[in-house]
Amino acid sequence: MERIESAITSAIRHRPLNALITETFDLARHQAKEAIKRGQKPFPLVVKDCYALKGVRATCASKMLKDYVPPYTATSVQRLIDSGGCVIGKGNMDEYSMGTSSALGHFGPVKNGLSNLEKLDDDWVVAGGSSGGPAVSVQMGIADCSIGSDTGGSVRNPAAFTGVFGFKPTYGTISRYGLIPLVNSLDAPSIFAQSAEECWRFFEIAAGRDANDSTSIDPKTSLLSKKLSDLVIGIPKEYHNESLTDEAWQLWNRAANILTRLGAKVRTVSLPLTKYSLICYHVASGGDIASNMARYDSVAYGHRSSNNQSTFELYSSSRTESLNSVVKKRIHFGNYFLMKKHRKEYFERALKVRRLIAEEMWKAFKEVDLLLTPTACGVAPLFSQLHGENFARESDDDFYTQPVNMAGVPAVSIPLGTSPSSNLPLSVQLIGDRLQDRLVLEVAEQLYKAR
After folding, report:
1. What pLDDT, in 10s, does the model give residues 407-435?
2. Which of 196, 195, 192 is nearest to 91 (CA)?
3. In terms of Cα–Cα distance, which of 332, 52, 342 is closest to 181?
4. Which of 228, 230, 381, 444 has the fewest CB atoms within 10 Å, counting from its CB?
């Protein structure tokens, strides 16, 4: 109970960071008492606000859903609650999970705990996205575990920016039931924690088949079958591109040297199709986004405009008033790619390229056990810098994380150091083959302890 009260105190103290959209302190206290009755040790949990939690609004950081209250709880969230999880609040995010800054949602920007608190109203260090609120919650001690969603890096990116662990598991190992979808074939419920061991602990609780999700599968939970000295670590040369900063490259090189010192064999590999992943992602995901966003017509639920002179006016005005510019652009793009005259040229071709990118990565794992890459091109920027560059930095960072989602493989962001110039966190990423989640996290833990 003491840990829950200290988490609530931390949430109140750090309200200026805007990590939570909805605070559920009374619910957390009730869940803690119930957990103690069951003989469990309660732990504070923050849930990204795109997951259903019965009786608590799920907004997706959008005006469209600002008053939507789901009548059920997501499977992954319920499993964590059943094991002692106490929900401190719903984590702030990019609207509908579209973005990597958590800065443009309806409820205001998430601010990194490493920001200058005296100048927080003027500028701040970006928290990353789209799961910025859950990341900051773990960073500031509001939660021991946060559950986010990772479609193209939305957990690993904010983990890197805030200096915590962000684990994206094999696609399907955690049920998507109750997760408001962005891109159904890429969305992966994912875990934030303060260590790789804790990531595994919470992953084991949340993972497993679910009758409500036909894509769900059971994870492999066996112990590491190989010694670190028997492992081969691949370094994809394409990830050393023009966007990568010297500091990020030096940390990447240092991580490779640590693994070598620990006995692993490190070798260069080539993933030439990686350069197509960014554009492929935007085209392929656009179709899913346009389709998923079509449900928000303001009739059954969601923001309803007062302009209801006709059905068309009601639909159009409601969506125009309640969706931000990023969401609108992706809907437009997606519908364009799905038009009959464009579908073969763009959408179907992107699906073929996606398959090639995935197969290329799967093939690499026949030669190496893990891949080691940067998580982002550098440290978290100030919001003024990100905005001044018209958010171009987001695409630079997406390059390192999106191929993982296309292949459906597990990956973890490891906070391995800090920048000498800014003292902000720098991270590397370990990627494994499908269902090698435990291997990824065990090597991540050894790498972190040897840093």
Report:
1. 999 999 999 999 999 999 999 999 999 99
2. 192
3. 52
4. 230
